[in-house]
Amino acid sequence: MADHAPTYQADCPFCRIAAGEIPVEVVFQDEAVVLFNDINSKAPTHVLAIPRRHLASASELTDADADLLAALFRAMRRVADEAGLKGYRILTNVGLEAGQSVFHLHFHLLGGRPMAWPPG
Ligand code: AMP
Ligand code: ZN
């Protein structure tokens, strides 16, 4: 589908991960999404879910991305279920002030320990 078509930006680390140019521990992938372990894990389970197509953040999502979002959340649920998580948190940082450091859309899937609220 057109909205799943991969794009590639050579200066984007997550485009490079999606292209297999930077080794990561992949836990799930299909034609639209890649899920891999965060290199700086903040919980026993800390997985990043990215679209293969480059989007800088959730602020660039449009109605045309409905299938892509469904694919990301379906994959995160699958990984959470396979890990046997009793509960988990899904979050995405949008912009520098929110703590975004990689400007390719990604969702953090965190679990395996109690979560505090609100996040810092
Ligand atoms: P954020 O701060 O929300 O943009 O999250 C970026 C996340 O990407 C951080 O949790 C980093 O630890 C993670 N990260 C950056 N580079 C890599 C990499 N090469 N492999 C795995 N995780 C990465
Ligand atoms: Zn990218």
Map the helices and strands.
Elements: H1 13-18, E1 26-29, E2 33-37, E3 45-51, H2 66-82, E4 88-91, E5 107-111
Antiparallel strand pairs: 1-2, 2-3, 3-5, 4-5
The chain binds adenosine monophosphate and zinc ion (ZN).
Describe the model.
- The model has no long low-confidence stretch (mean pLDDT 95).
- Helices cover 19% and strands 21% of the residues.
- By secondary structure, it is of the alpha+beta class.
- It has one domain (13-111): HIT family, subunit A (2-Layer Sandwich).
- Bound molecules: adenosine monophosphate and zinc ion.
- The site of adenosine monophosphate (AMP) has 12 residues, from loops.
- Zinc ion (ZN) is lined by residues 9, 12, 14-15, 54, 104.
What are the salient characteristics of this protein?
2 helices, 120 residues, 5 strands, 19% helix, binds adenosine monophosphate, alpha+beta, globular, HIT family, subunit A
Percent strand: 15-25%
Mean pLDDT: 95
How many strand segments? 5
Unreliable stretches (pLDDT < 50, length at least 5) are none
Largest sheet: 5 strands, antiparallel
The value of Rg in angstroms is 14 Å
Q: Any idea what the shape is?
A: globular
Give the count of helical stretches. 2
Secondary-structure content class = alpha+beta
Question: Into which percent range does the helicity of residues fall?
Answer: 10-25%
Q: So, the CATH homologous superfamily?
A: HIT-like
Strand order of the largest sheet: 1-2-3-5-4
